[in-house]
Protein backbone atom coordinates (compact mmCIF):
# COMPACT_ATOMS: atom_id res chain seq x y z
CA UNK A 1 0.00 0.00 0.00
CA UNK A 2 1.06 3.56 -0.69
CA UNK A 3 2.71 5.88 1.83
CA UNK A 4 -0.35 8.16 1.87
CA UNK A 5 -2.55 5.23 2.67
CA UNK A 6 -0.34 4.05 5.53
CA UNK A 7 -0.11 7.58 6.91
CA UNK A 8 -3.90 7.94 6.83
CA UNK A 9 -4.39 4.66 8.67
CA UNK A 10 -1.86 5.68 11.35
CA UNK A 11 -3.66 9.00 11.83
CA UNK A 12 -7.03 7.27 12.07
CA UNK A 13 -5.60 4.94 14.71
CA UNK A 14 -4.48 7.89 16.84
CA UNK A 15 -7.86 9.61 16.49
CA UNK A 16 -9.73 6.43 17.39
CA UNK A 17 -7.41 5.94 20.35
CA UNK A 18 -8.65 9.28 21.63
CA UNK A 19 -12.28 8.14 21.30
CA UNK A 20 -12.96 10.00 18.04
CA UNK A 21 -14.35 8.52 14.86
CA UNK A 22 -12.20 8.78 11.75
CA UNK A 23 -12.45 7.46 8.18
CA UNK A 24 -10.88 7.73 4.79
CA UNK A 25 -13.38 9.55 2.60
CA UNK A 26 -14.21 10.91 -0.84
CA UNK A 27 -12.02 10.50 -3.91
CA UNK A 28 -9.66 7.95 -2.33
CA UNK A 29 -12.53 5.56 -1.53
CA UNK A 30 -14.03 6.05 -4.99
CA UNK A 31 -10.76 5.48 -6.83
CA UNK A 32 -9.90 2.41 -4.76
CA UNK A 33 -13.25 0.82 -5.56
CA UNK A 34 -12.65 1.66 -9.22
CA UNK A 35 -9.23 0.02 -9.05
CA UNK A 36 -7.61 3.32 -10.01
CA UNK A 37 -4.49 4.97 -8.68
CA UNK A 38 -5.32 7.08 -5.63
CA UNK A 39 -3.58 10.46 -5.68
CA UNK A 40 -4.58 11.91 -2.35
CA UNK A 41 -6.06 10.34 0.72
CA UNK A 42 -8.39 12.51 2.80
CA UNK A 43 -9.50 11.73 6.34
CA UNK A 44 -12.76 12.85 7.95
CA UNK A 45 -13.24 12.82 11.71
CA UNK A 46 -15.62 13.65 14.55
CA UNK A 47 -12.77 15.47 16.31
CA UNK A 48 -12.81 19.26 16.05
CA UNK A 49 -9.81 20.95 14.41
CA UNK A 50 -8.51 21.89 17.88
CA UNK A 51 -8.82 18.31 19.08
CA UNK A 52 -6.96 17.17 15.96
CA UNK A 53 -4.18 19.68 16.55
CA UNK A 54 -3.83 18.60 20.16
CA UNK A 55 -3.28 14.96 19.13
CA UNK A 56 -0.46 15.44 16.61
CA UNK A 57 2.93 17.08 16.99
CA UNK A 58 3.10 18.59 13.52
CA UNK A 59 0.06 20.18 11.92
CA UNK A 60 -0.58 23.06 9.54
CA UNK A 61 -3.75 25.15 9.56
CA UNK A 62 -4.56 24.93 5.87
CA UNK A 63 -8.27 25.64 6.15
CA UNK A 64 -9.14 25.57 9.78
CA UNK A 65 -12.28 27.69 9.27
CA UNK A 66 -13.59 24.90 7.04
CA UNK A 67 -12.45 22.30 9.52
CA UNK A 68 -9.34 21.16 7.68
CA UNK A 69 -6.01 20.57 9.39
CA UNK A 70 -3.00 19.17 7.56
CA UNK A 71 -1.36 16.51 9.70
CA UNK A 72 2.31 16.01 8.90
CA UNK A 73 2.99 12.29 9.14
CA UNK A 74 6.54 11.11 8.37
CA UNK A 75 5.25 9.13 5.40
CA UNK A 76 2.95 11.83 4.00
CA UNK A 77 0.96 14.93 4.91
CA UNK A 78 -2.74 14.13 5.20
CA UNK A 79 -5.71 16.51 5.24
CA UNK A 80 -7.95 15.80 8.19
CA UNK A 81 -11.35 17.48 8.06
CA UNK A 82 -13.93 17.60 10.82
CA UNK A 83 -17.39 16.20 10.02
CA UNK A 84 -19.32 19.19 8.82
CA UNK A 85 -22.36 20.40 7.02
CA UNK A 86 -22.29 23.46 4.84
CA UNK A 87 -23.91 26.58 6.28
CA UNK A 88 -25.89 29.16 4.37
CA UNK A 89 -25.26 29.30 0.64
CA UNK A 90 -25.10 32.71 -0.92
CA UNK A 91 -25.16 33.28 -4.67
CA UNK A 92 -25.01 29.56 -5.51
CA UNK A 93 -21.40 29.40 -4.39
CA UNK A 94 -19.52 27.59 -1.68
CA UNK A 95 -20.72 28.61 1.76
CA UNK A 96 -18.64 31.04 3.76
CA UNK A 97 -19.10 29.30 7.06
CA UNK A 98 -19.54 25.65 7.91
CA UNK A 99 -21.08 23.89 10.88
CA UNK A 100 -19.21 21.08 12.55
CA UNK A 101 -21.35 18.05 13.27
CA UNK A 102 -20.74 14.88 15.25
CA UNK A 103 -22.09 12.30 12.81
CA UNK A 104 -20.49 10.82 9.74
CA UNK A 105 -23.86 10.48 8.05
CA UNK A 106 -24.44 14.24 8.07
CA UNK A 107 -20.99 14.78 6.61
CA UNK A 108 -21.53 12.25 3.83
CA UNK A 109 -24.91 13.79 3.01
CA UNK A 110 -23.36 17.18 2.17
CA UNK A 111 -21.07 15.63 -0.45
CA UNK A 112 -21.83 16.05 -4.13
CA UNK A 113 -22.25 12.62 -5.75
CA UNK A 114 -22.97 9.14 -4.42
CA UNK A 115 -19.61 7.86 -5.71
CA UNK A 116 -17.88 10.61 -3.68
CA UNK A 117 -19.95 10.11 -0.53
CA UNK A 118 -18.46 6.89 0.82
CA UNK A 119 -16.19 6.37 3.81
CA UNK A 120 -13.75 3.59 4.63
CA UNK A 121 -12.91 2.36 8.13
CA UNK A 122 -9.48 1.25 9.25
CA UNK A 123 -10.86 -2.31 9.03
CA UNK A 124 -11.54 -1.77 5.32
CA UNK A 125 -15.28 -1.62 5.77
CA UNK A 126 -17.06 0.64 3.26
CA UNK A 127 -19.72 2.92 4.69
CA UNK A 128 -22.03 3.59 1.81
CA UNK A 129 -25.26 5.32 2.80
CA UNK A 130 -26.21 6.46 -0.71
CA UNK A 131 -25.48 3.37 -2.82
CA UNK A 132 -22.26 4.71 -4.23
CA UNK A 133 -20.90 1.21 -4.83
CA UNK A 134 -23.88 0.36 -6.98
CA UNK A 135 -23.42 3.57 -8.98
CA UNK A 136 -19.73 2.79 -9.43
CA UNK A 137 -20.65 -0.64 -10.80
CA UNK A 138 -23.23 0.83 -13.16
CA UNK A 139 -21.09 3.82 -14.11
CA UNK A 140 -23.48 6.52 -12.92
CA UNK A 141 -22.92 10.03 -11.54
CA UNK A 142 -25.85 10.74 -9.23
CA UNK A 143 -26.37 13.68 -6.88
CA UNK A 144 -26.68 12.89 -3.18
CA UNK A 145 -30.21 13.81 -2.09
CA UNK A 146 -32.32 16.33 -3.97
CA UNK A 147 -30.40 17.17 -7.14
CA UNK A 148 -32.04 20.56 -7.73
CA UNK A 149 -31.30 21.65 -4.19
CA UNK A 150 -27.71 20.45 -4.39
CA UNK A 151 -26.96 22.27 -7.65
CA UNK A 152 -28.77 25.33 -6.46
CA UNK A 153 -26.57 25.38 -3.33
CA UNK A 154 -23.34 25.13 -5.30
CA UNK A 155 -23.50 25.54 -9.07
CA UNK A 156 -19.95 24.27 -9.57
CA UNK A 157 -21.24 20.76 -8.83
CA UNK A 158 -22.90 20.74 -12.28
CA UNK A 159 -19.53 21.08 -13.94
CA UNK A 160 -18.07 18.55 -11.51
CA UNK A 161 -20.71 16.07 -12.71
CA UNK A 162 -19.58 16.62 -16.30
CA UNK A 163 -15.93 16.38 -15.28
CA UNK A 164 -16.41 13.07 -13.44
CA UNK A 165 -18.41 11.69 -16.38
CA UNK A 166 -15.50 12.53 -18.70
CA UNK A 167 -12.80 11.24 -16.33
CA UNK A 168 -14.54 7.98 -15.49
CA UNK A 169 -16.50 7.55 -18.72
CA UNK A 170 -19.70 7.44 -16.68
CA UNK A 171 -23.20 8.67 -17.51
CA UNK A 172 -25.16 11.19 -15.46
CA UNK A 173 -28.36 9.82 -13.88
CA UNK A 174 -31.46 11.19 -15.69
CA UNK A 175 -32.87 13.11 -12.72
CA UNK A 176 -29.46 14.57 -11.92
CA UNK A 177 -29.03 15.56 -15.57
CA UNK A 178 -32.43 17.21 -15.70
CA UNK A 179 -31.56 19.18 -12.57
CA UNK A 180 -28.38 20.43 -14.26
CA UNK A 181 -30.47 21.58 -17.22
CA UNK A 182 -32.80 23.41 -14.88
CA UNK A 183 -30.00 25.07 -12.91
CA UNK A 184 -27.51 25.63 -15.74
CA UNK A 185 -27.85 29.41 -15.62
CA UNK A 186 -26.47 29.45 -12.07
CA UNK A 187 -23.07 28.59 -13.51
CA UNK A 188 -22.78 32.33 -14.22
CA UNK A 189 -22.26 32.83 -10.47
CA UNK A 190 -19.12 30.70 -10.38
CA UNK A 191 -15.62 32.14 -10.60
CA UNK A 192 -13.93 31.29 -13.86
CA UNK A 193 -10.86 29.93 -12.04
CA UNK A 194 -12.96 27.17 -10.48
CA UNK A 195 -14.67 26.46 -13.80
CA UNK A 196 -11.31 26.18 -15.51
CA UNK A 197 -10.02 23.75 -12.89
CA UNK A 198 -12.89 21.36 -13.59
CA UNK A 199 -12.47 21.69 -17.36
CA UNK A 200 -8.73 21.04 -16.94
CA UNK A 201 -9.54 17.70 -15.34
CA UNK A 202 -12.20 16.87 -17.94
CA UNK A 203 -9.66 17.48 -20.71
CA UNK A 204 -7.55 14.57 -19.54
CA UNK A 205 -10.59 12.32 -19.80
CA UNK A 206 -13.02 11.82 -22.65
CA UNK A 207 -13.86 15.28 -23.96
CA UNK A 208 -16.34 13.78 -26.40
CA UNK A 209 -18.43 12.79 -23.38
CA UNK A 210 -17.86 16.13 -21.62
CA UNK A 211 -18.81 18.30 -24.59
CA UNK A 212 -21.86 16.18 -25.37
CA UNK A 213 -23.01 16.70 -21.78
CA UNK A 214 -22.26 20.43 -21.85
CA UNK A 215 -24.56 20.69 -24.86
CA UNK A 216 -27.30 18.42 -23.55
CA UNK A 217 -27.45 20.29 -20.26
CA UNK A 218 -27.03 23.72 -21.92
CA UNK A 219 -24.10 24.44 -19.60
CA UNK A 220 -22.19 25.38 -22.76
CA UNK A 221 -24.40 28.49 -23.07
CA UNK A 222 -22.64 29.86 -19.99
CA UNK A 223 -19.09 29.08 -21.07
CA UNK A 224 -17.05 31.32 -23.36
CA UNK A 225 -16.36 29.89 -26.83
CA UNK A 226 -18.01 27.14 -28.83
CA UNK A 227 -17.82 23.55 -27.65
CA UNK A 228 -18.69 21.14 -30.48
CA UNK A 229 -18.84 17.37 -29.99
CA UNK A 230 -17.56 16.63 -33.52
CA UNK A 231 -14.40 18.58 -32.77
CA UNK A 232 -13.62 16.81 -29.51
CA UNK A 233 -14.65 13.20 -30.01
CA UNK A 234 -11.57 10.99 -30.00
CA UNK A 235 -9.13 13.76 -29.03
CA UNK A 236 -7.04 12.13 -26.31
CA UNK A 237 -4.33 14.17 -24.61
CA UNK A 238 -2.23 14.05 -21.48
CA UNK A 239 -1.99 17.70 -20.55
CA UNK A 240 -4.84 20.16 -20.16
CA UNK A 241 -2.96 23.10 -21.68
CA UNK A 242 -2.89 21.33 -25.02
CA UNK A 243 -6.66 20.94 -24.73
CA UNK A 244 -6.96 24.69 -24.25
CA UNK A 245 -4.70 25.31 -27.25
CA UNK A 246 -6.96 23.03 -29.28
CA UNK A 247 -10.01 24.85 -27.96
CA UNK A 248 -8.45 28.09 -29.23
CA UNK A 249 -7.71 26.43 -32.56
CA UNK A 250 -11.42 25.51 -32.81
CA UNK A 251 -12.41 29.09 -31.92
CA UNK A 252 -9.67 30.91 -33.75
CA UNK A 253 -11.46 34.21 -34.50
CA UNK A 254 -12.18 34.52 -30.80
CA UNK A 255 -8.77 33.59 -29.40
CA UNK A 256 -8.13 36.94 -27.74
CA UNK A 257 -11.44 36.91 -25.88
CA UNK A 258 -11.00 33.27 -24.84
CA UNK A 259 -7.51 33.91 -23.48
CA UNK A 260 -8.91 36.78 -21.46
CA UNK A 261 -12.13 35.06 -20.37
CA UNK A 262 -10.40 32.02 -18.86
CA UNK A 263 -7.66 34.16 -17.27
CA UNK A 264 -4.67 32.31 -18.61
CA UNK A 265 -1.27 33.28 -17.25
CA UNK A 266 1.23 34.83 -19.63
CA UNK A 267 3.13 31.57 -19.76
CA UNK A 268 -0.03 29.65 -20.70
CA UNK A 269 -0.90 32.26 -23.31
CA UNK A 270 2.53 31.92 -24.88
CA UNK A 271 2.21 28.14 -25.03
CA UNK A 272 -1.22 28.40 -26.64
CA UNK A 273 -0.06 30.95 -29.21
CA UNK A 274 2.96 28.84 -30.08
CA UNK A 275 0.83 25.73 -30.51
CA UNK A 276 -1.58 27.62 -32.76
CA UNK A 277 1.24 28.89 -34.99
CA UNK A 278 2.97 25.50 -35.05
CA UNK A 279 -0.31 23.75 -35.91
CA UNK A 280 -0.80 25.98 -38.95
CA UNK A 281 2.75 25.28 -40.04
CA UNK A 282 2.25 21.55 -39.54
CA UNK A 283 -0.89 21.38 -41.67
CA UNK A 284 0.43 23.61 -44.47
CA UNK A 285 4.14 23.10 -45.26
CA UNK A 286 5.15 20.87 -42.36
CA UNK A 287 7.81 21.77 -39.82
CA UNK A 288 10.94 23.54 -41.10
CA UNK A 289 14.34 23.76 -39.45
CA UNK A 290 13.25 27.14 -38.06
CA UNK A 291 10.17 25.57 -36.46
CA UNK A 292 12.27 22.89 -34.79
CA UNK A 293 14.53 25.66 -33.57
CA UNK A 294 11.98 28.14 -32.26
CA UNK A 295 9.38 25.83 -30.72
CA UNK A 296 9.84 23.57 -27.70
CA UNK A 297 9.43 19.83 -28.12
CA UNK A 298 6.22 20.10 -26.11
CA UNK A 299 4.79 22.63 -28.57
CA UNK A 300 5.92 20.63 -31.61
CA UNK A 301 4.42 17.38 -30.34
CA UNK A 302 1.24 19.11 -29.19
CA UNK A 303 0.64 20.80 -32.53
CA UNK A 304 1.36 17.51 -34.32
CA UNK A 305 -1.32 15.83 -32.19
CA UNK A 306 -3.84 18.48 -33.22
CA UNK A 307 -2.84 18.14 -36.89
CA UNK A 308 -3.31 14.39 -36.59
CA UNK A 309 -6.68 14.72 -34.90
CA UNK A 310 -7.97 17.16 -37.51
CA UNK A 311 -6.22 16.05 -40.70
CA UNK A 312 -4.77 12.63 -39.95
CA UNK A 313 -1.25 13.92 -40.54
CA UNK A 314 0.95 11.25 -38.89
CA UNK A 315 2.42 12.47 -35.60
CA UNK A 316 5.81 10.71 -35.98
CA UNK A 317 6.88 11.78 -32.52
CA UNK A 318 10.29 10.06 -32.74
CA UNK A 319 11.07 11.99 -35.89
CA UNK A 320 10.07 15.24 -34.23
CA UNK A 321 12.22 14.48 -31.18
CA UNK A 322 15.19 13.53 -33.36
CA UNK A 323 14.92 16.56 -35.58
CA UNK A 324 14.70 18.76 -32.52
CA UNK A 325 17.65 17.21 -30.73
CA UNK A 326 19.85 17.00 -33.84
CA UNK A 327 19.73 20.71 -34.60
CA UNK A 328 23.24 22.16 -35.05
CA UNK A 329 22.21 24.96 -32.68
CA UNK A 330 19.99 24.74 -29.59
CA UNK A 331 19.45 28.44 -28.98
CA UNK A 332 20.95 31.88 -29.51
CA UNK A 333 23.07 31.59 -26.34
CA UNK A 334 24.79 28.53 -27.81
CA UNK A 335 26.02 30.48 -30.84
CA UNK A 336 29.85 30.42 -30.88
CA UNK A 337 30.08 34.15 -31.61
CA UNK A 338 28.69 37.19 -29.85
CA UNK A 339 27.78 40.66 -30.98
CA UNK A 340 31.02 41.84 -29.44
CA UNK A 341 33.06 39.45 -31.66
CA UNK A 342 31.37 40.90 -34.73
CA UNK A 343 32.08 44.48 -33.67
CA UNK A 344 35.76 43.60 -33.27
CA UNK A 345 35.96 41.76 -36.61
CA UNK A 346 34.29 44.52 -38.53
CA UNK A 347 35.59 47.38 -36.41
CA UNK A 348 32.11 48.91 -36.40
CA UNK A 349 29.87 50.44 -33.77
CA UNK A 350 26.80 48.46 -32.73
CA UNK A 351 23.61 49.15 -34.68
CA UNK A 352 20.93 47.57 -36.79
CA UNK A 353 23.60 45.75 -38.84
CA UNK A 354 24.65 43.77 -35.77
CA UNK A 355 21.26 42.27 -35.16
CA UNK A 356 20.92 41.36 -38.83
CA UNK A 357 24.40 39.85 -38.91
CA UNK A 358 23.65 37.67 -35.89
CA UNK A 359 20.39 36.54 -37.47
CA UNK A 360 22.24 35.65 -40.69
CA UNK A 361 24.86 33.66 -38.79
CA UNK A 362 22.22 31.90 -36.70
CA UNK A 363 20.36 30.90 -39.83
CA UNK A 364 23.56 29.76 -41.61
CA UNK A 365 24.53 27.55 -38.65
CA UNK A 366 21.01 26.11 -38.43
CA UNK A 367 20.92 25.24 -42.13
CA UNK A 368 24.41 23.75 -42.00
CA UNK A 369 26.11 26.38 -44.20
CA UNK A 370 28.75 26.86 -41.53
CA UNK A 371 29.74 24.98 -38.37
CA UNK A 372 29.02 26.54 -35.01
CA UNK A 373 32.69 27.32 -34.42
CA UNK A 374 34.12 30.76 -33.86
CA UNK A 375 36.98 30.52 -36.35
CA UNK A 376 34.84 28.98 -39.09
CA UNK A 377 32.09 31.50 -38.56
CA UNK A 378 34.64 34.28 -38.79
CA UNK A 379 35.95 33.02 -42.11
CA UNK A 380 32.48 32.41 -43.46
CA UNK A 381 31.20 35.78 -42.32
CA UNK A 382 34.16 37.87 -43.47
CA UNK A 383 34.31 36.14 -46.88
CA UNK A 384 30.64 36.72 -47.25
CA UNK A 385 31.10 40.40 -46.51
CA UNK A 386 33.96 40.68 -49.03
CA UNK A 387 31.85 39.03 -51.72
CA UNK A 388 29.14 41.63 -51.31
P1 LIG B 1 -10.05 14.29 -7.44
O1 LIG B 1 -9.59 12.91 -7.66
O2 LIG B 1 -10.21 15.04 -8.70
O3 LIG B 1 -9.29 15.05 -6.39
P2 LIG B 1 -12.07 14.21 -5.44
O4 LIG B 1 -13.34 13.41 -5.34
O5 LIG B 1 -11.02 13.96 -4.42
O6 LIG B 1 -11.53 14.07 -6.90
P3 LIG B 1 -12.03 16.91 -4.54
O7 LIG B 1 -12.43 18.15 -5.26
O8 LIG B 1 -10.63 16.71 -4.13
O9 LIG B 1 -12.53 15.70 -5.44
O10 LIG B 1 -12.99 16.81 -3.26
C1 LIG B 1 -12.88 15.81 -2.26
C2 LIG B 1 -14.28 15.38 -1.82
O11 LIG B 1 -14.98 16.49 -1.26
C3 LIG B 1 -15.16 14.85 -2.93
O12 LIG B 1 -14.95 13.47 -3.17
C4 LIG B 1 -16.54 15.15 -2.40
O13 LIG B 1 -16.94 14.18 -1.47
C5 LIG B 1 -16.36 16.46 -1.66
N1 LIG B 1 -16.59 17.65 -2.49
C6 LIG B 1 -15.68 18.36 -3.20
N2 LIG B 1 -16.23 19.41 -3.81
C7 LIG B 1 -17.53 19.39 -3.47
C8 LIG B 1 -18.65 20.25 -3.78
N3 LIG B 1 -18.51 21.31 -4.56
N4 LIG B 1 -19.84 19.92 -3.24
C9 LIG B 1 -19.98 18.85 -2.43
N5 LIG B 1 -18.99 18.02 -2.12
C10 LIG B 1 -17.78 18.28 -2.62
MG1 LIG C 1 -9.17 15.12 -4.21
From TrEMBL:
This protein's UniProt keywords: Magnesium, Metal-binding, Nucleotide-binding, Nucleotidyltransferase, RNA-binding, Transferase, tRNA processing
Classification via CDD domains: NT_ClassII-CCAase
Biological process terms in GO annotation: tRNA processing
Domain CCA-adding enzyme C-terminal intervals: 235-380
Poly A polymerase head domain mapped to chain residues: 22-142
MF-aspect GO terms: metal ion binding; nucleotide binding; nucleotidyltransferase activity; tRNA binding
Domain tRNA nucleotidyltransferase/poly(A) polymerase RNA and SrmB- binding: 170-223
Lineage top rank: taxon: Bacteria
Keyword Nucleotide-binding: yes
Essential cofactor(s): Mg(2+)
Family: Belongs to the tRNA nucleotidyltransferase/poly(A) polymerase family.
Protein name: CCA-adding enzyme
Organism: Lysinibacillus alkalisoli
Amino acid sequence: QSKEWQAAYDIIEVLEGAQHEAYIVGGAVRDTLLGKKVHDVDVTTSATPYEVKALFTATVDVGIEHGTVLVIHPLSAIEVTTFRTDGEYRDHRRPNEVTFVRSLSEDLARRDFTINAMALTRQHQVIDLFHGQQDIKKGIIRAVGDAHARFSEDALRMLRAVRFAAQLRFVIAPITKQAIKDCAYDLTHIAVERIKMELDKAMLGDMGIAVQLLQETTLDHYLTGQWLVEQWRGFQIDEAQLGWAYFCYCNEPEVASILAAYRFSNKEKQFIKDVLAATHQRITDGYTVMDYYQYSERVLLGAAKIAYHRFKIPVESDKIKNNKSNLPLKNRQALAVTGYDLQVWCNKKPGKWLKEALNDIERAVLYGDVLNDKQQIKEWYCNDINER
